[in-house]
């Protein structure tokens, strides 16, 4: 390990030290869940929400973790990154569909081959 790494490691454990994150309780008494906003207004901004949101018990608890909305070039960069991720996710979905199709085609072919082999064995 080089000197630099040692310094880096050391500085992570001493010094300021982030305050322990306290558990945020939602209005219905459950520990709030951390989530991330993906909206145009607040890309990547983290917030607390309730796991009962949009369930029959529908809890609307909401609290931002990150203070201040993103703005300026950072916001543009975040939106670009978000769109990039979405595009890649779509591509991955497409590829997964293709793989599933190839797999089922292959399985059909394999069955077909098995039929042929069985046919030969019966000869
Ligand atoms: Zn709740």
TrEMBL record:
PROSITE patterns in UniProt: ZF_GRF
InterPro entries xref list: DUF7900, Znf_GRF
Origin: domain of life: Eukaryota
Domain GRF-type, first and last residues per copy: 26-68
This protein's record includes keyword Zinc: yes
Pfam families: DUF7900, Zn_ribbon_GRF
A GO molecular function held by the record: zinc ion binding
Coiled-coil annotated spans: 78-105
PANTHER family from the UniProt entry: ZINC ION-BINDING PROTEIN (PTHR33248)
Protein name: GRF-type domain-containing protein
Naturally occurring in which organism (per UniProt): Brassica carinata
């Amino acid at each position: 390990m080089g000197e630099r790494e040692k310094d880096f490691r050391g500085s992570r454990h001493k010094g300021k030290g982030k305050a322990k994150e306290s558990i945020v309780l939602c209005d219905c008494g459950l520990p709030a869940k951390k989530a991330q906003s993906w909206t145009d207004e607040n890309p990547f901004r983290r917030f607390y929400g309730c796991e009962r949101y949009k369930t029959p018990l529908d809890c609307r608890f909401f609290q931002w973790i990150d203070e201040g909305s993103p703005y300026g070039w950072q916001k543009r960069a975040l939106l670009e990154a978000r769109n990039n991720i979405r595009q890649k996710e779509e591509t991955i979905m497409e590829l997964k569909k293709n793989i599933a199709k190839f797999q089922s085609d292959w399985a059909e072919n394999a069955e077909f081959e098995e039929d042929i082999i069985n046919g030969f064995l019966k000869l």
